[in-house]
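Task: complex structure prediction.
Instruction: return structure tokens for all chains below.
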Amino acid sequence: MRRLLPWLPVFVLSLPVSGPWLLVTWWRERRGRQARGRRVLTPTMETIVRRLVEESITVSDDPVPLEHVVDNVDRYLDAREPTRRWRIPFGLLLVDLAAWTRTRRRVTQLAPERGREVLRRLFDEPGSPWARLGRLRQLVRLAYYAHPSAQQWMGFVPFDARTPTPRPARVPPVADLPVMDARPLEVRHA
Amino acid sequence: MHEERVDAVVIGSGAGGSVTAFRLGRAGARTVVLERGRRLPPEAQSHDELAMLANLYKEGGAQLTADLDLLLLQGSVVGGSTVLTNGVCFRMPESVRRRWATQGFALGRGELQTAYERIEAALGVRPMSPVHLNPGTEPAVKGFEALGLDVQRFHKNLRGCLGCGYCNMGCPYGRKQDAARTWIPWAEAAGVDVRARHEVLKLEARRGRIQAVVARDLERDETVRLRAERVVLAGGAIGSPELLLRSRLGGAAAGRRMGMHVGSILVAEMDEPIDAFLGDQMGWWHKGDGFALEQVHNPPMTFALTVPGRSELHHERTGRYRHLTSAGVLVPTPMSARVVLGRLGRLAKVPRADVLYKAEASVVAALRRGFDRLARVYLAGGARRVFVPLHQGSCVEHVDELPAAIARIRRPKDVPGLGTAHPQGGAVAGDEARTSVVDASLQVHGVQGLYVVDASVFPSCVEVNPQLTVMAVADAVSTRWGLPPSEPPMSPAPSPARALEVEREEETVCSS
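Output:
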């Protein structure tokens, strides 16, 4: 916070110009979100999510359509409890700003290939001040692998689709695994 | 503002709050439990990992330390974090009980023993059925045996478990005997009023005595003031100190001396498909020098987060899910973390807490030792290769390559997905008001009628999964308060599984 204080006068002085621009952008993003039927993701955030997916899950035989990953991110952000809900959407917008500091262009204005390269540099370059935003990769991985097609591709069998089989057919050696002995209130150290 | 008068208010419905509410209710006290999370019964739970993550976990599972380096996993639902556990029930090590006594929180051995026995009987805690050990257990056990190391099966609070493997995402079949299935309904049967979606804004105390609790009903968007002579704070090791700090109670020690279990997961790959998802997520554990190893095999979405590597490499490895098995390393930290009101949060209407913690060199060293042992176990057990959790996804096929890979873990940042579980401390128990928040009866120093009953009173890390100990401490302390001993009913029989037409016998497992 203290590092941002010197910029406060600059911010205040620029308000007559940046203020209306911010308002118009906010209004446009809000309308875009409603028009696309999204609950949280604005058009800019959505583009950033797409770039993140392209950057962190690049595959030729992709089992999950990109649109479904974006749907899942929106669903997840909407279902979260109210506390600090702003953090992830704010982080997505910061990615846009971070790209601008490197290329003087926003992620949304970059070609997919270039966007991918810029994100990789932002997140992975040693000493990058934006490296922590790399956590957003986890968000898109969650949204991607939550999809039933991705799970099927992994070879996972949903519980309801499994057939009950008698236990003795499987894993006999582990049956004699000693049971944790809690009685003496003492943990044994190896 | 709506105003009410009751005998007792319990804030939080997790391991500590639920047991205390039950004891208060049985003693005839008009008690209200306030819980910020939703009420999500088994019928409302599912195997949709993304939805469960968003609905059951605090901040949707994205709660982080202030420097954004470590994930802090906690529940935010009626039943608290007990709803998210794998049902693992440990009694605390005797060495920890003795240490606590020297730190000013003496719990008698017999007193604790009685409480543990009562809780275990009520929840049906027993050795986990071998029927549900997942197939990933076999190579691990083989590895432990080959290395001459001790490995044990967990005790769990499951009844009629179906082995679906989704314990960390609740239990849609109602088999896990978490607080929402046991203490909360038992407390309600004793007349306790449990209110979900109620966030406590502040505690009011005057002249060294608790007066009231001010809370917000998040559904109706209205404020309620509950006047009570006894207030029990059980919001967990982050929530309880946060509320004390916000209410300017608890003195200088509030928010200090907090610890947790830091950990991450190591994935091993077998030559043949083993389908480790067929069974319980957690079956075995092993105690090492300054660390514990616990089996954790997550369902597909959360499993994908534990596979190291980037882009194509990550995707390719995740695609071998049927060949993969995994376990975690847990390291108890010193009590060096702090809960503070966030810098930005102070400007907010309801200031939120931040957790400040920098992992010590000793913690990183213990993590290294844990990963080293775990990798050796899997390689000795027949794994084709193990993935040491590094950003580049270091792949080790032979033990000779292990030291170089492990040595690359120098800082917590080097380990992707490094997270924490079981936060403890922050409102610790002790003799002196200068260094502790509550006394041996868990009453806040200098504030009569205000108690803290959750893991935040632990003077040091309990070193094992803490839910059973939190419940036992709550039960033992309720007796110290003079509440009459009240035997809880036994665990209820499992409800018919919603998704299953025919009840499956416990002696069967599911296999593809």
